[in-house]
Amino acid sequence: MKRTVGQLMARTALRVPLFLWTVAVLYPIFWMFLGSFKTNAEIYSNPWGLPETFNFQNYVMAWTDYNISTSVFNSLIVTVLGAILCLILAIPTAYAIERIKFKGSHVLFTLYISAMMIPMVLAWIPLFFLLAQLNLLDNLVGLAVVYALSQLPFTIFVLTSFISTIPKSLEESAAIDGMSPYGILWKIVTPLTMSGIITVTIMNTIQFWNEYFMALIFLQSEGNYTLALAIDYISNEAQYTNAWGTLFASLVIAIIPVIILYAIFQRRITKGMTEGAIKG
Amino acid sequence: MDITEAKTNHKKIATYLSIFPGAGQFYNRQFIKGSVFLFLTIIFMSAFWDIIDIGLWGIVTLGEIPMEDHSIFLLVQGIIALLVIAIGITIYVINLVDAYRNGKRRDLGFEKNSIRQQYQNLIDTGFPYLMLSPGFFLLIFVVIFPILFVILLSFTNYSISNSPPAKLVDWVGFDNYIDIFKMDTWRHTFFNVFKWTIIWTFAATTLQIAVGIFLAVLVNQKELKFKKMIRTIFILPWAVPAFVSILVFAGMFNNTFGTINNDILAFLGIGPISWMTDPFWTKFALIMIQSWLGFPFIFVMVTGVLQSIPNELYEAAQVDGASMWQKFKNITFPIVMYATAPIMITQYTFNFNNFNVIFLFNGGDPAVVGQNGAGATDILISWIYKLTLEVGQYGKAAAITMMLSLVVITVAIWQFRRTKSFQEEDMM
């Protein structure tokens, strides 16, 4: 009898931290969701009660008055363009590095790995001047190019590990049948790496969608603001206008696409992340 | 065969001729290749001559007439000129090597390749290079260019009070570095910021790793129910964009209407804490927030490792009468650490440069009197950002960036070597 009591206590003791941490994780997220439906008065007086009426006023305000609609569109352009460009550059490079032994392939791989370790922060100011020189400042395409390149080493890194799992015999037999290396890359390797391509693209997409600082530095006019910039703008305004509800509403708008992506691809993302990480 | 070897010395002649690009290839009777090299040279010269000319002049002088010459853009052009020259030299060397090789083939009496073969050759051996060059070329501009720029900038006196177009920037040698260590306010600020950067890195990272491992082990208990749901919840902080959660936290920790003071602490009977204005509590809050933001990654990774540990190990320990703690200490922890150590180290370097949390939560504030542009919670990277974009001390900021890079690169090299030896062990 005594033993079971002891076991019971141990069991509860082990579950308490889990429970507390679950609360800690959900608390800020709920707080934000609730806040997005409340008026300012409610946020101040009764932060935890359910909103008296679920009013969507905050969302309407965010969407129209604060131009979140334009920003969503801008973010979409930058994200899609960046992700595609990154793949176009990364797939051939990853294949060449992984499969073709040529002079300098090892050096190059090391170079890409080291590029991965250089914090992008160091590049912000130099890139600002470079983009200014190239007339790409305050330009969504310019930002997309920078995004794509900033994730290029990581993308190559992940893709090489996926390509390395394709059996070499497939490529060899295709080569014997007279297929050119370009054909092999396009018709055999790319389709077989598809799962890796999807994984890394989802990760890049989320990364680009969430990126804030490069957008802050490289974009200037309000019409070009990405979602993160627009929200930061509202957040700064909120200190004076007290538009906290609007801020929460726009935060929710920003989260929803990401949460949907996660919900659909959760297994793939965690798998890709851990595989890449543990192998690396 | 002896005769041909004595008679011809095509490789030498071809190489010498190729000092004028393409000529050696013509001599080797590879007319298409020769024309390509010649064509490339002409294009290169005509397209880049001005850039190289202005760029080299610019990088040496940084401009001569105020209002007309913009030193910083001249510096940019200078670096571009250097990169263009490097690419040009590479093509030139390829041209020489090619002439030499084909000359040698002729010396040895091989037939020259037919145009078709040449084409096939170019396509096949050139394949990896063709695949690599677009990405690599662009990478030069995003990685190599910024590095060169920061290095060079750290040797100039570029600052908001000495900035183009009104004034010219000059080379000042090591002055920026010397100032940081010699001038009291700079030295004082540098060491304060550096100290907090180190504390921040170790405290925040160690905590997030500890939380991640702890929770992964708890969730991995066999008899626990709702595992899937708990795992999904624990990954949420990872799914929410970091800038969103940090802004939400900034609201929650708000001194006046924040829920931490008004609800949680009030519920526990603790008076309000000035999270945003008291340096100690701001630092405390930052470390807590980072553990919230950073643990899911560790959690997911460790869960993966835990699931791969064979059950027999624990059963054997059970037979030997090992306690839960002993099992963790002697089986779980070593295996987890062995599998994930390299990643754990990257977490430290990540937090060392974790600009987002510091800057978005409270902008490095509260402010501290007598510190050059740095607030109480600024880490090196956010201080550099402020020095550049708010205070306008560009030269100094570049010098500090160089010192920071030194730390990061040292750790990166060390870690890379470790990872390599790890992988080699695995191979055996």
From TrEMBL, chain A:
Residues 72-265 form the ABC transmembrane type-1 domain. The keyword Ubl conjugation does not apply. GO terms for biological process: transmembrane transport. InterPro entries: MetI-like, MetI-like_sf. It is found in: Cell membrane. One of its GO terms (cellular component) is plasma membrane. The chain crosses the membrane at residues 12-34, 76-97, 109-134, 140-163, 184-209, 243-265. It is a multi-pass membrane protein. It comes from the Bacteria. The keyword Membrane applies. Keywords: Cell membrane, Membrane, Transmembrane, Transmembrane helix, Transport. CDD domains: TM_PBP2. Belongs to the binding-protein-dependent transport system permease family. This is Carbohydrate ABC transporter permease. The lineage of its organism: Bacteria, Bacillati, Bacillota, Bacilli, Bacillales.
TrEMBL record, chain B:
The keyword NAD does not apply. Residues 194-415 form the ABC transmembrane type-1 domain. The chain crosses the membrane at residues 36-60, 72-97, 136-155, 198-220, 232-253, 284-306, 331-350, 397-416. One of its GO terms (biological process) is maltodextrin transmembrane transport. One of its GO terms (cellular component) is maltose transport complex. InterPro entries: MetI-like, MetI-like_sf. Keywords: Cell membrane, Membrane, Sugar transport, Transmembrane, Transmembrane helix, Transport. It is a multi-pass membrane protein. It is found in: Cell membrane. One of its GO terms (molecular function) is ABC-type maltose transporter activity. Belongs to the binding-protein-dependent transport system permease family. PANTHER family: GALACTOOLIGOSACCHARIDES TRANSPORT SYSTEM PERMEASE PROTEIN GANP, MALTOSE/MALTODEXTRIN TRANSPORT SYSTEM PERMEASE PROTEIN MALF. This is Sugar ABC transporter permease.
